[in-house]
Amino acid sequence: MMKTSLILLLILPLAVFAQRAQPTRQQILDHLAKMRATEKGMMNVSPAEGEYLSELVKKLKARRVLELGTSNGYSGIWIAMALRETGGRLITLDLDEGRRSLALKNFKATGFDDLIESRLGDALKMIPALQGPFELVFIDAWKPDYKKYLDMTLALVPSGGVIAAHNVDSHPSEMPDFLEAIRSHPQLKTEFVRVGPAGLSVSHKR
């Protein structure tokens, strides 16, 4: 009986370790590539844009990130890779139940489901209930509402934080008020980053 108990004591920690083992970076990158190849029509960031966002999280030492527009979770996984290093967490919002369901599966497959809180619903209705600070807000949702998202999240971002937005080069006609605002707002210093075809705006809060 004592011998059996000793064996169990040796085996159980190994089982717990196996359950908690995280996918390697290469395994995560492979899964991201598979997502791009098989999950079509998601309007994801490009791999280079994903890498840029990941590096931005690390540069900001972000502990809390807000994403508007989860889609299938592609950009959220890039962000979460950096949050694993900074000790942070991501809240991501999306209106579409099907995309969110797909994202949840991808978050679990890449081992980031413990770092990402996915919420289903209209961001314009959910943002007022959020509490800051968020060192990074990433906007990649309904383009004509970008200016509304900016106005609603600016107060949640501390000085030195960033509001980034996708598709500023590919869909400028759908967000002219947003583009004007990030260029002229006295609290923002904006740069345009063209590491991918859709374009990113990166607005640093003074």
Task: Walk me through the structure.
This protein is an alpha/beta fold and 206 residues long. 46% of the residues lie in helices and 18% in strands. The protein contains eight helices and seven strands. Helix 7 packs parallel to helix 8. About 2% of the residues have low confidence.
Write a brief caption for the model.
The protein is an alpha/beta fold and 206 residues long. It has helices at residues 2-20, 25-38, 47-60, 74-86, 97-109, 123-126, 146-153, 176-184; strands spanning 64-68, 89-94, 116-120, 136-139, 162-166, 188-193, 200-205.
Layout of helices and strands:
Elements: H1 2-20, H2 25-38, H3 47-60, E1 64-68, H4 74-86, E2 89-94, H5 97-109, E3 116-120, H6 123-126, E4 136-139, H7 146-153, E5 162-166, H8 176-184, E6 188-193, E7 200-205
Parallel strand pairs: 1-2, 1-4, 2-3, 4-5
Antiparallel strand pairs: 5-7, 6-7
Top keywords for this entry?
single chain; alpha/beta; Rossmann fold; 7 strands; 8 helices; seven-stranded mixed beta sheet; 206 residues; globular
Number of domains: 1
Order of adjacent strands in the largest pleated sheet: 3-2-1-4-5-7-6
Q: Mind telling me the C-alpha Rg?
A: 19 Å
Number of helices: 8
- Percent of sequence in beta strands: 15-25%
List the helices and strands in order. Answer: HHHEHEHEHEHEHEE
Give the name of the CATH architecture.
3-Layer(aba) Sandwich
- Estimate the global geometry from the Cα principal axes: globular
Q: How would you name the oligomeric state of the polypeptide chains in this document?
A: single chain
CATH third-tier fold name: Rossmann fold
- Bin the helical content: 40-55%
**Which segments are poorly predicted (pLDDT under 50) over 5 or more consecutive residues?**
14-18
N→C terminal distance = 67 Å
The biggest beta sheet, please? 7 strands, mixed
Estimated structural class? alpha/beta
**Name given to the CATH homologous superfamily:** Vaccinia Virus protein VP39
Average pLDDT works out at 93
Q: What is the C-level CATH assignment?
A: Alpha Beta
Write down how many β-strands occur, each being a DSSP E stretch of 2 or more residues. Answer: 7
